[in-house]
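Following the same procedure, backbone shapes were mapped to integers, as reproduced here:
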Amino acid sequence: MARVSIEMKNHIAHVTLTRGDKMNALDAEMVAAIIAAGQEVAASPARAVVLSGEGRSFCAGLDLMSFAAMAGMKVEDWLMDRTHGDTNEMQEVAMVWRRVAVPVIAAINGAAFGGGLQLALGADIRIAASDAKLSVMEMKWGIVPDMGGMVLLPRLLRSDVLRRLTYTAEVVAAQQALDWGLVTELAEDPVVRALELAEQIASQSPSAVRAAKALIETAEAAPRSDVLLAESDAQIGLIGKPDQIEVVAAQMQGRRPVFK
């Protein structure tokens, strides 16, 4: 059975987890399908991405059968093998979306637990339903977040909040997640809102949006001097180029820009 679908429309890639009968839980096939979808979208002309899950949950985390499978494997080799640059296969489930050059918006309904939450963290923006539930749930199973969560969570949360969520594995309501910065905003229908936001992003200069995402990634990790140089380098690649010229012309002529 297919685990992920991709629909391209109006320069937006809508990526949907399609294991709704299992709350889109992560089994080996789902892991492979999510990574493949990220790679496919990265190679496409999409200008924005919406990531969602079918059915009643975004992603409930690791399939319990996967825990049973772990008992019979050499975990050290599996986890330490850098299969995708700086990540292992499980980490790439989240980090592949950071490698996508355009903004990714996660639309969260129902549960986003454990690995499902870390998948959502790989997105640039998270829109949650008001009744969504989120959890850094790994401690419940006697493990730690290891799918990129410890790269991504410290960028969003105060240290005390991060520690509380990690140590307790508590389930957090959407409003509390918003207050803490775990999600960007709440919406009655997160997929509809995510698509609206994606359309707004897709209407901007494609080259400027890509440059902005790359620049933000640099700004969040690099020293000040490197960030200042990266700003200048990014701007040199934009000023006077076709997309920027079209933006200025459209502004002056009172019309929507048209990009090639």
Observations:
- Residues 12 and 48 are 5 Å apart (CA to CA).
- The chain has twelve helices and nine strands.
